[in-house]
Structure formats: C-alpha cells, structure tokens
Amino acid sequence: MLLAQNTYAQLPPVFAGDKRAVQKEETVRTYLSPTKILWQSTTDAANIKNAARLLKTGDGQANLSGKDLCILQNTATAKASLLLDFGRELHGGLQLVTDQSRGGKPIRVRIRFGESASEAMSNIDTVKGATNDHAMRDFEISLPWLGKLEVGNTGFRFVRIDLLGDNAELKLKEARAIFIFRDIPYLGSFKSSDTLLNKIWMTGAYTVHLNMQDYLWDGIKRDRLVWVGDMHPETSTIAAVFGNSNVVPKSLDLARDITPLPEYMNGMISYSMWWLLIQHDWYMHNGDLKYLQQQKPYMIALLNLYLKQIDDNNSEALKDGTRFLDWPSSTDPKAIHAGLQGMLAMTLDAGAELSTILGDPTTAAKCKAAVARLKKNVPDPGKSKQAAALLGLSGLMPADKANAVLSAGGVHDYSTFFGYYMLMAKAKAGDYQGSIDAIKDYWGPMLSLGATSFWEDFNIDWLPNASRIDELVPAGKKDIHGDYGAFCYKGFRHSLSHGWASGPTPWLTQYVLGVNVMAPGCKVLKIEPHLGNLTYAEGTFPTPLGIVKIKNTKLANGKVKIDVQAPKGIMIIKSVN
Predict the structure, then answer these.
(1) With a threshold of 0.90, does the pTM exceed it?
(2) Where are the alpha helices (DSSP H) in 462-525?
C-alpha cells in the first residue's frame, strides 16, 4: 500500500527511547528469476554446468543439500560467464545465493547490468558511452561462502556474471532480480481496437511506474533525479493511470525547497514554468486546495519574477538560467526563443487561474495583461516542432499553422519528451488521426526493437538495419543502443526507461478515451472521444471520488456512442463530434 508522506519505520521494542527518525521507504521489493540464459561464454560442461537451474523459482535461502546447482569453473585459459535476461526493464539489483566454495573463501565475480543485451556485454569506456553515472552498473564483488549477497541499484533488464580468477569455481544456487517498485494499483486503463495503441498506453504507464521511487525520477539507470520539466508528462501519466500519489507533491516540494528565488529549478528557465503548469494540472485533477495554498508565497513570487522579464517589444527576455526546451532543439536559439515565448504565455495563463483560486486578483490581472502583450509578438518557429507545439498550445499561433510545421516529414524530428506537446498541439488543430498515426509511427518502433519501457530519445533515422535490444547484435547490423544517441545520451549512456517519454498514455486517455477535466477534483468531466479509424475505445479513469468507466463505440453510421459510469458527485458532459 502507498504510505503517507513522512511516515517512519516501526522499530522493535529494544529501540525504545531512541531519538533517531528512521524513514521507511515507500517501495516494496520482490524477487524475479531470469526468463532466459541469453548467452554463455561456453557450452563446455567443464566450464558451465546446469545453467538452466538459474531459471527456476528460488527461495533466497542457501542450504546444505549441495543439489541442483549452477557451477561455473575457470581454467587458466577458459573463463565462465553468463548473460541473464529478466524479461523486461526493472529497477533494483541482483540477489546471488551461493553454495560451499573450495577452501571456504569468498569468490570474486564481475557484475554488469544493462538495459540492453549489448550494454550488459560492454565495458566502461569512451567508445560507446558505457558509464557508472548515477548508478553503479559494472563492478567487481566478492561472493560469500554458503550465503547470500544483494548488490546493485539501477535500471536493467540484463545481467552478465563473470567468474574471475584462474582455476576458480562458483557454485550458484540462485541469481534473482530484486525488483523495487511502488505497490500501487493501475486504476486507469485503456483498450481499443488497435492492439499496438493498447501496448503503447501500457508501456508509457509502466515506464512512469518504474520511475516512481521514493521521489519521481526521470530515469532509473541515469537521471535518477527530480527534473521538474521532465516531470510534466510523468505527472500527466500518473493522473491518468494511478490517480493521486504522494510522490508528486513530495517531488514538487523538494524542487521548491532547494530552489530559492530568483533561482530556477534545475538551473533551467523553463523548468520553473513546468513547476507552475504541473501545480495547475495537479490541482485540477485532485482538487487539493489546502496543498495549493501552501504553494502560494513561492508561486506568486515566481510569477512576478517572470512578469518582469517581458521587454518593450512584447518579447520574452528571460535570463539568469539555461534557456532550454529539450535536447534536440538545444542548438537552435531561434527555436528556443519562440518556444519560450509560447511557454511563458502558457505559464502566465495558468498563473492567472491559480492566482484567482488563491484569492490574489492583482497577480491574476497582471498575468492576463502579460499574456495579451506576448500574443502581439509571435516569433517564427522555423522548422522546429518543439517551438511550433508550444506556440500552438499557447494560442500565439493558429493551431492549423502550428500543425503544418508538426506534420512536415511525419515523425521526423520528434523527441520523446516534446512528442507529448506535439501530439497535443495536433489535437488542438483537430488532427486526431494524425496524432494516432504519429504515436504508432514514433513510439511503436521502440516496441518492435524489444523495448518494454520508453527511451530518453528516439529517432526514426536509427531504424534501418538496427538490431533489437534483447539480442546480441548480429554481424552486419547496427547496435540501436550503442551506436546511436546524442548530446548527453550518447551510446550506452542513453537511458532506455525515461519517464518523460510517456506522453502517449495521457494523450490517449484524454483524446481517444475522451476524458477532459473541467473542474477541480474531477467534479466535472467532459467525455469527448476522437476515435479516428478505431472502432471502439474503452477504459477507466481515476478521480478523487472513484473510478469512472467509459466505453466509446463507433456505430455503422459513423457516429460514436458514449457509455459512462461515474461515481456520485461527478457531473458528466458528453460531447460527440
């Protein structure tokens, strides 16, 4: 069950009077055996015996039976190694249960975690970007005689185990993944006549679930940090799938408390804007006025900081922080300016609403006046889909004009972070089928390459002759993980489980299932589905008042029939186009 914020462990009675506050983690641990031995250094039984034993369900307990063991043995020239596949992306570590070793001495092994098979086979180097950044994923350890060791805390699917030393022997009873996650139900759901869309929705949900650790991270291997801008797609996914979760306010408050004004969160001008936008969306979903009121001093001061940074030409003049939208647009100053102009208008629009709710009409009026000024100056987004999306969503650029930029070249120049806003901007222009196609054409290929969670970035130009992440790269093929990537995510440093990539999940819930929150706390929901070429879409949506069930069915005449079951206290408005 989800624990309340700031709960603490219940200690045994011997700790009575101990003044230490012992924080209890909000996650659980479960143990999973591998699904496959993907590779082994040799099939010679003199070096590796009974490897399949590791695929059996374990109990985590060493014993004296000496039976049914996987035995790895090195000679002076042949070294024993195994590559284990745990079936899907996980967060956690590895539990190793050993038998008796020769001489009762510890046995040295090398452990390599990988989000792809090729990463688990790689070395830390400067060639393909394999690192130990944020989390140790490649190291040597000693295993106990007749005991158990738990090691690692990272994102992974694959683990390579190498026995070290000449003439060494390791008798291994179990090698199980330690899966660390929040034990929370998937209250939201989505099912349609398109099985690929259904799988994409669930993969986005699972990607965010993996990153809902004690705080809301962006990546479970790398970027195990609270990146506030990256959180916006994640918090949208959480609202659509899990409903209220304390990981959101806990992470928002951490960012606020470590960022005294006039500093910007994570050092990025746009990330404090995302904090304001998340506060708005989170309040609309959960209706927690008490929590929102706690943000008032910081929020109003932050809005006034932004209000001061509009010049005489009605242009954003934001400074004293990194000017950033996302990585693929980071080398285009004109696109960044156009995007920040649109994003500032979105932020101040939300700020006007929040200020009104918080009883500050003066700030609300200033925000509205500033948005009117910003709309008088509409920068050219050029070919930047990031900038066009923000200009379209803010209302600075006509939606159809923004969509023309977004539609050029299909899903070329999409990014996994800003792809969410590209989809929303296309929907604002009424291009729902175009959005559905983009989801399948951009997020779908990651699944076809073996992904079980969505990646930090993806480029469809990587597809030709690319290998899957769940196989060793065949001769003549490109390594989709090791050979590609850019900026801070080159090669194996590239995170293959990044929460900011989950945008299709809330998009499908809002625009295909049709759920639009019209009043704080979901007390008014507008159900307005856009099925495109789908014949039906059904699912559930979590609210503070309970679960809403929706089924949209396309009739023979092309009309859509909407069936809704909602808890008492929720007004449902049906809208069929």
Answers:
(1) yes
(2) 504-507
